[in-house]
Amino acid sequence: MKNYELLCILPGTMTEEEVGPVLKEVEDILNNQGAQNIKLEDMGKNRLSYPMNNIRYGYFRLFTFESEKQNINKIQERLNMMTTLLRALISEFDPSKRKSSKITYVTDSSGVVTMTKDTIAAKRKNDQVKDKVEKNDTEDKTEDKKEKPGITKEADNKKQQKTKKGKKVDLKDIDKELDKILESDISGV
Fold it and tell me: Do 58 and 43 meet the contact criterion of CB atoms below 8 Å apart?
């Protein structure tokens, strides 16, 4: 016996109460054809990538089961006769390769977001990145407190006030401020 998975897509126009009997009918077809260890996974209601029979949403259900290879064609024929299913796709799968982990998004120090399935490693990596970012932020704050050559305290205070308010700064304003600073430095020489 081999392991198979059956992805069923039911019309999103059905109610949750109407979906139950259809799934029971699919399970009966599997049982009648000698399938064993039948498990059902609810994958939710999602938008279809393209409309099928003018339907844009569908309920996705995944059956996993064991069966003999010669029974698969019979199962597929019976499922194709069901008018309540939009799609029914049967494929072989290796249960040892299938992981039931959720997708995790990790952001590195440069702001790049990566997607990973290994939740434990991803959490550790994400925590390490957060620690580095926090460390860099505290270093930046201590550097900001030090007096910078060529920049007066007034200009530094203005900069802090603008960043505190969260206002966007126009490039023309920056150029004007730089010109003022440079002129004051040149006149002091």
Answer: no
Measured between alpha carbons, how far apart are the two ends of the chain, in Å?
Answer: 89
Contact of 44 with 60, CB cutoff 8 Å: yes
Which tokens go with 146? Answer: 């030090």
Q: Span 50-58, mean pLDDT?
A: 91
Q: Is the pLDDT of residue 65 over 80?
A: yes
The CATH architecture assigned to 2-92 reads 2-Layer Sandwich (3.30)
For residues 183 and 52, give the distance between their C-alpha atoms in angstroms, rounded to a whole number: 70
| Residue whose tokens read 């019309």 | 11
Instruction: Judge contact between 57 and 12, C-beta under 8 A.
Output: yes
Residue located via tokens 């499922």: 79
pLDDT in tens, 90-125: 999 888 776 555 556 666 666 666 666 554 554 555
Q: Which residue has the tokens 């926090």?
A: 134
What's the pTM value of the predicted model, to 2 decimals? 0.52
In this structure, are residues 103 and 89 in contact, taking their beta carbons and an 8 Å threshold? no
